[in-house]
Amino acid sequence: MADLYTVDDALTRILASVNPLAPETVPLESVLGRILAQDVIAPTPVPSFANSSMDGYALNASDTTGASQENPVKLAVSMDIPAGKAPETDLQPGTAARIMTGAVMPHGANAVIPVENTDSQWSALDPTPPHEVLFYSAAQPGDNVRPVGEDIQQGATVLKAGELLRPQEIGILASLGIAQIPVVRRPRVAIISTGDELAAPDQPLRPGQIRDSNSYTVAALVTTYGGIPIRIPTARDTLDDVRHRFREALSHQPDVILSSAGVSVGAFDVVRTVLDELGEVNFWRVNIRPGKPLAFGHLEQVPFLGLPGNPVSAMVTFDVFVRPLLQKLGSRPDDTQTTTALLGEGLKTDGRRTYLRVRLTQENGRLVAHTTGTQSSGALMSMVLADGLLIIPEGMTVVTPGSELPVRLLRWMNIS
Ligand code: AMP
Ligand code: MG
Fold it and tell me: Which residue's C-alpha comes closest to atom 10 of ligand 1?
């Protein structure tokens, strides 16, 4: 008799068997969606030099005291500072430097007056600055100047190990001149489907055959949770073929091996023989619906999970057991979202923890969950139509309409 576990026990055992993966170094253009493996300390301040935030004139604010529309102050223009060039001299007292947005503030200047507050008319056709300028407003020290370190102080910890790299974090790394990034390695996951009845989507169906959908849903889930799926061709129900495919899976040096089907009573003899040859795998009965049969162990030290064959069971057990496993391996935070909803209809269960596929609607200001038609563990449309998985706790056999229960939202999207 296979061991019987609660969902939580089974998950605890699975998670205890793995450690987060080591870092690898990846070029900046490839780190979107990856997890940072080390803190990032700013090697330089940003900006690294004081610069102008406006097109205008850099000057010493005290030279414009009292300037107004009626009483403008006139200064000679002694320098011209475009973006991307360092000024060659200090600003002479009592003069102004024409300066572009982002250009270096010259020594001797402490403020910028925007061109709009002067009598200057800049034209792309005439790039030479005027000899003198009238200023219609007075500047305060610091006006329109971005000081050194305004965004980032040198030595500051700007990003922490474990952070998800989004476009904005990538911009910060670029700003700091960091082009090679230590990130957590993505788990490599070998995926095997087993069964004589399975035909690939692009192959003709022989009588009695069905399409292999599990290797596609499981591969897509692996990608969704930051892993690298490696699909192995379907194993026929013969000892030789199953052995051959599992060996092929191991040859890819995966961090996890997943199989679907072949773990339920009656089905697993062939698979079990091979698993026993290659490692140590236990067959579990988990108090979960859908997805009671589950196999877990190691094949040549690689963690192995045998998921049930029914397409909904394979997806739900992936969500409950494999997703947290990949999150631990990849050091990814659990970003799943849970809400609560009132069950729209009454139902009975057999006391296993049940994951119902539900649609969520707002009714009289409350979130109500309706099951998505047939809840057969083979009916994949129940997943397509679902907004979430409503969880009926173990032991609750009669659920009355209006019961308030947790719902795990299904918001899967590609993050890598
Ligand atoms: P088994 O675990 O082998 O008893 O399979 C349980 C059910 O899942 C059977 O109806 C199988 O035909 C179906 N099944 C198994 N593998 C797949 C797969 N890769 N894609 C779709 N359905 C499958
Ligand atoms: Mg089978």
Answer: 310
